[in-house]
Design a protein that fits this description.
It contains 15 helices and 12 strands. It has 438 residues and is α/β, with parallel strands linked by helices. Helix 2 crosses helix 15. The protein binds nicotinamide-adenine-dinucleotide. Nicotinamide-adenine-dinucleotide binds next to helix 8 and strand 7.
Length: 438
């Protein structure tokens, strides 16, 4: 067990050592190739799906508050739209790349297909550190970026949503900039908006809620009564905190949670309702540890991943379970709250060791599912109550989870392969039914 004084820099050092160079695009392509071995799909169709339909690259000039002008690059990768308009988040992050957008757009195609939503996959972003922008600068950047991608987005074309570095306010600015140019209010152009301009109640907590629902179903399936189940959650943001709080409410014992500065561990369980989430107060987990009773131990994020718990929920960033630490993962079930937390190499090791990995494209799909509910509400101009959102999400998640479970049982494959089989079959069947434009 690490000491309470373990420094953040030790942790960063360790996390750098355990990160292998596997990009989101490489992981997404390898996963697709592996899934293709389980389904009878034409090789040319698979080859096409390894590539995006389109990637838009735009230049976004921004007038800073001091009057100077900086120029940023923005992307919108559109992977596949055979089942409906493109759908996926927009990130503001200094490490956004074209390839990352493409890899993440592929995952969105599968995520929407796993949930049987009438959407395809997209992802985009601007290469910028949002912390370096004032609120006014962020708004101006967002409005200009919207103008640059205006022709390729729209409620029946491509519907962005929040992601890292963007939030409901960002979506409201996009909706406004788009609507002003179109000459009418078009709330369905983005999801994840504030409810006052057409956002859905329950959207913010939806990915964490779906992680909790999928964890509950999986625990039940493998005979882990939630009241006897221990859970460690990496990341205490929108996904991690909401998942941890619901699992705690449903009787599980959450023994560890973390933020970017480190983790806290208490084998008797942590009252996760007492800790503010990242959104409520950034990096509050480690601050809580400083004030908490002695039985809460400070450990590193890397140690959290290796705790001997029943369920591990990596819900912070990608590539945290790698070939370097996969052998040391002691949990029996891993539920992927983050996008791409497990590298392809690590996945093979976990499968070999009999660890059940519930993939991101199923586990955190509550976000895009409630985005779909939001889009329906926008188009119909009719708001749903939060109770209705929760009820419909519950039934959609349980239905999708059950369909994947049937594939796991029938084909004797991992949960990831089963999810890909379901998604790939739906996408390739749609391609086949529509045919190839000559
Ligand atoms: P968030 O910003 O709300 O919270 C992130 C949390 O992770 C914070 O507690 C932060 O301190 C911690 N963190 C950041 N860097 C870390 C690191 N290097 N090591 C350990 N912890 C670190 O983010 P979020 O919205 O909860 O998203 C988390 C993950 O879930 C991302 O991979 C995101 O793409 C994915 N996801 C988010 C949504 C959504 O709608 N919010 C939907 C689906 C998937």
């Amino acid at each position: 067990m690490a000491s309470k004084q373990q420094s953040a820099s030790d942790e960063e050092q360790r996390s750098n050592e355990t990160t292998e160079p596997e990009t989101a695009l490489e992981t997404a392509r390898r996963q697709l190739e592996q899934a293709a071995t389980h389904v009878d799909v034409d090789g040319a169709a698979i080859e096409r799906l390894k590539h995006p339909a389109k990637v838009h690259e735009v230049t976004v000039p921004l007038e800073r508050d001091d009057g100077s002008v900086d120029v940023f690059t923005g992307y919108r990768a559109q992977h596949d739209s055979v089942r409906g308009p493109y759908k996926g988040g927009l990130r503001y992050h200094p490490e956004v790349t074209r390839d990352e957008c493409v890899g993440l757009s592929m995952w969105m195609t599968w995520k929407c297909a796993v949930m049987d939503l009438p959407f395809g996959g997209a992802k985009g972003g601007v290469v910028v550190d949002p912390k370096s922008l004032s609120d006014d600068e962020k708004e101006r950047l967002t409005r200009r970026f919207t103008q640059e991608i205006r022709d390729v987005i729209g409620p029946t074309k491509d519907i962005p949503a929040p992601d890292m570095g963007t939030d409901p306010d960002t979506m409201a600015w996009i909706m406004d900039a788009y609507s002003m140019q179109e000459g009418e209010t078009i709330p369905g152009v983005v999801t994840g908006k504030p409810p006052v301009v057409g956002g859905s109640y329950g959207r913010e907590e939806a990915p964490g809620r779906s992680v909790a629902i999928v964890t509950r179903e999986t625990c039940e399936y493998y005979d882990y009564p939630l009241s006897d189940t221990t859970v460690a959650v990496q990341g205490f943001g929108s996904v991690g905190a909401n998942a941890a709080r619901l699992l705690h409410e449903w009787g599980a014992t959450v023994v560890a949670v973390s933020d970017v500065n480190g983790a806290i561990y208490d084998p008797d369980g942590i009252d996760v309702t007492a800790i503010p989430s990242h959104d409520e107060e950034p990096e509050a987990v480690t601050a809580y540890a400083a004030e908490a009773a002695d039985d809460v131990t400070r450990i590193s994020n890397a140690d959290l991943l290796e705790l001997d718990v029943d369920v591990l929920v990596p819900a912070a960033i990608g590539n945290v379970i790698t070939a370097d630490n996969a052998d040391a993962i002691a949990a029996d079930i891993v539920v992927e709250g983050a996008n791409g937390p497990t590298t392809f190499a690590a996945d093979a090791i976990l499968e070999e060791r009999g660890v059940h990995v519930i993939p991101d494209i199923l586990a955190n799909a509550g976000g895009v599912t409630v985005s779909y509910f939001e889009w329906l509400q926008d188009i119909n101009r009719r708001k749903w109550s939060v109770e209705r959102v929760h009820d419909e999400l519950e039934s959609e998640m349980v239905r999708a989870w059950s369909e994947i479970r049937d594939e796991v049982e029938e084909r004797n494959v991992s949960w990831r392969d089963a999810s890909y089989v379901v998604a790939l079959s739906r996408v390739s069947d749609a391609h086949e039914a529509r045919g190839l434009w000559p």
